[in-house]
Amino acid sequence: MKLLVLGTGAGESYPGLWCTCENCSYARTYGGKNIRSNSAVMINDDLLIDMPASALQNAARWGVSLAQVKTLLVTHPHTDHFSANHLWNRNWPKAFDQHGREEIVGKQSAPCASPLPMMEIYGTRFVRYAIENAEDLTLSTEEYHYRFHEIAGGVRFETNGYQVTALDARHGEPGFTVNYILEKDGVSLLYATDTGGYSAEVWREIAAHRYHCVFLEATAGAIPLTGIAGHMNLERAEAFLGQLKAQGCLMENSQLYLTHLSPHWTPPHDKLAPMLEQKGIGVAYDGQSIEITD
Ligand SMILES: [Zn+2]
Ligand SMILES: [Zn+2]
Q1: Residue 41 CA to ligand 2 centre (angstroms)
Q2: 156-206 residue pLDDT tens
Q3: How far is the CA of 260 from the centre of ligand 1 (A)?
Q4: Is the full-model pTM beyond 0.85?
Q5: Is 168 in a helix, a strand, or coil?
Q6: In 3D, which of 212, 205, 204 has the Cα closest to residue 184?
Q7: How many domains is the chain built from?
Q8: Cα(92) to centroid of ligand 1, in Å?
Q9: Beta-carbon contacts of residue 64 (< 8 Å; ≥ 6 apart)
Q10: Are 212 and 180 in contact, with CB atoms under 8 Å apart?
Q11: CATH of the domain at 220
Q12: Which domain holds residue 276?
């Protein structure tokens, strides 16, 4: 499994779009891995987890086309994870020639001038609501070449060769956010953002798998949290990984990464990465390529 990290920031991005605090100023000055846009990853060129506007733009920056994406898994419809209006760009004008073959007509008038495969979108009923209320999407779903599948935590499904398990997360009202376990070709990924931990029932599902790679949020960084909080901090993220290890869910070569990091609670990458390296925890960065092997 191949992973391209399209973003690792929390909602405000890193630096915060309007912010000049110490961490935000540091990120602007030193750039590189200190710059984080909203969190998303692409798997094997054909599956996206989350689709914030910034991830679509980052793909081009790293020379990657999203045209082969056949599955989009949405965690939740907060704008830092899903920009429904951007589906508008999937409209390419289709007609049939005299032999019944698809052809493109009127290229100039459409946002996309080359054919796209159907994209299967999976998300909760809240994602459905976001799509239905996206004011730019005035055409039919066929014209944007996607199909929407409503799912909920606890559901397991197969899509384009991936086994997917949706997990009820703790972020927003009940049922609002799901996280995902992805399995293909004998390797597995746990994508765990956004969430403030999991219920005992979800933990049972999590503990029933072994992970070659874990992407885990640590939004609240160094600040203390009380209650469920809807996010994790560094302390809770470390405890979560420790629990995975204790339950036999990790292997010697499992790759562990933190993501969804906020400038106001988390030091910039230059400072955070060395702090966590000695603990065997990686800090993901925008544009990172990861090879996940058995
Ligand atoms: Zn978020
Ligand atoms: Zn969120």
Answers
A1: 16
A2: 999 999 999 999 999 999 999 999 999 999 999 999 999 999 999 999 999
A3: 7
A4: yes
A5: strand
A6: 212
A7: 1
A8: 30
A9: 4, 42, 45
A10: no
A11: 3.60.15.10
A12: 2-291
